[in-house]
Amino acid sequence: MVKIVGSKKLKRQMAPNFWGITRKNKRFVVTVKPGSHKRDFSIPTAVFLRDTLKIVTELREAKFAIYTGKVSVDGAKIKSLHHGIGLMDVVELEGVKEIYRLVPINGILLKPLIINDSEKTKKLVIVKSKTTIKDGKTQIGFNDGRTLIDETKVNVGDTCLIQIPEQKILEVIKLEKDNNGLIIQGINAGEIGKINEIKEGTFVLPKRVNITIGDRQIEIPSTLVMPVGKGEPPIQIR
Q: Do 104 and 190 fall into the same domain?
């Protein structure tokens, strides 16, 4: 049997703050295994239930809920304590009326936002790669690890509104001037501002976005900005 590489636990002191765990408790905590989201930008399913939502009090209760198929992410049942729940993921819990979407809010990388039932089949994802494969078809890679063979015209950095779990592209929001952008990391995480200019990358500098937030104008790497349209975002994100 093949052994999965990587530790299944993490020292509490090393865990990201947005997990919501207490520091003066047991020495170790469940961690994220390799998957759709990176460890530093996602929350393990068990930690999400116990420490973020506080819907269970013990790890064994979280295990029972997960192993019996009571937790769904983006419409698919999750059976692993270590599955990473990340940006814009939609979480449903059997027996709980609230449906959650993880979004950046007030400088916090990920917080659960209660959304309407009608929005649980929609999700915003960022285009991270675009590759031509066999027979000239286009494969699009998104920030949540999913890939899709689709001929929709998109560029790296654009946002797609997709239908889940079918993975159908419903709308494309371009990374371009005058669109609004959601900042997804850093001290401004959760802020939405107007994109003033997009500066192409150089040998020493990454592609940057000049964006206005309130009465401030900042310049940040384009990878930290999710375009969300000119008016209200197509789904609830705040």
A: no
**pLDDT tens per residue, range 158-217:** 999 999 999 999 999 999 999 999 999 999 999 999 999 999 988 889 999 999 999 999
- Contact call for residues 52 and 100 (beta carbons, < 8 A): no
Domain co-membership, 126 together with 107: no
Q: Which of 162, 227, 238 is nearest to 198 (CA)?
A: 227
Say whether pTM exceeds 0.70: yes
Q: Are 95 and 18 members of one domain?
A: yes
Residues 6+ apart with CB under 8 A from 46: 30, 59, 62, 63, 66, 81, 82
Cβ burial, residue 14 (10 Å; 0-12/13-18/19+): exposed
What range does the domain containing 210 cover?
Answer: 180-229
